[in-house]
Amino acid sequence: MDLEKGESGQHCYFRQDEPLPFEMRGILGSGGFGQVDRYMGLIMSPVADMDLSTYLARADTAIHRELRTFFGCLARALEFLHEQSIRHKDIKPSNILVHSGNVLYTDFGLAFDFTDKDGSTTVSMVNVMTPRYCAPEVANYEPRNTSSDIWSLGVVFLEMMAVLKGRTVEYIYNFLREHGSRQAFVRTNPIGTNALVTELKETGNPTDNAALVWVQDMVTLQQQLRPTAASLMGSIT
């Protein structure tokens, strides 16, 4: 088995003689897992340069072109996961690796395989969540499904957009504390979030504003109104 870089401008992919459910660019990373027949295997490579959280903290205008490519890669990888009946359940920058200019989802410790289920919806108690990135239905212990992954990725996209617009990630949460409900989470401050998106649209390169429209759709409070990963990819491409 090995990890290779695809064509120029494309992202890393995992290759093995026997197919894995996650054989897709942008998915496999350190701590990911795959399954062949009934056997579980831990995939320990690549060793990433950093996670996306660190990448965004260090970002300057020199990496903006590269950062713009991450939107499509992350959306396509999530589309593939959902096609394979997998909910990640813990999408956040620290669970996204940046490796040689490529991004990969990692840490599938909470992932839910609904291959043999009636659908992706679960209603059981949530044992672990990341408050900043989890969807409102997760925080409220309500039924959740693949749209909850979409929400989490939407918050990640918002942080990426803040950086592209010359802001920092912490600028987002400081802004939310001063607007709307004055609560620092996107899920608890929709008015503040909309005000932030409006401000970001008026800042920096206007050609980046399409991603802010995706973000608004992805962090809609009503689950059924959020795009699927497939429809998100349709918007991006």
Automatic annotation (TrEMBL):
GO CC list: nucleus
PROSITE patterns the record matches: PROTEIN_KINASE_DOM (PS50011), PROTEIN_KINASE_ST (PS00108)
InterPro entries, A to Z: Kinase-like_dom_sf, Prot_kinase_dom, Ser/Thr_kinase_AS
Domain Protein kinase: 1-237
SUPFAM superfamilies, sorted: Protein kinase-like (PK-like) (SSF56112)
Keywords carried by this UniProt record: Kinase, Transferase
Biological-process GO terms, alphabetical: mitotic DNA damage checkpoint signaling
Signal peptide: none
Alphabetized GO MF terms: ATP binding; protein serine/threonine kinase activity
Keyword Kinase: yes
Alphabetized Pfam families for the sequence: Pkinase
UniProt keyword Iron-sulfur, yes or no: no
UniProt protein name: Kinase-like protein
Provenance organism: Decorospora gaudefroyi
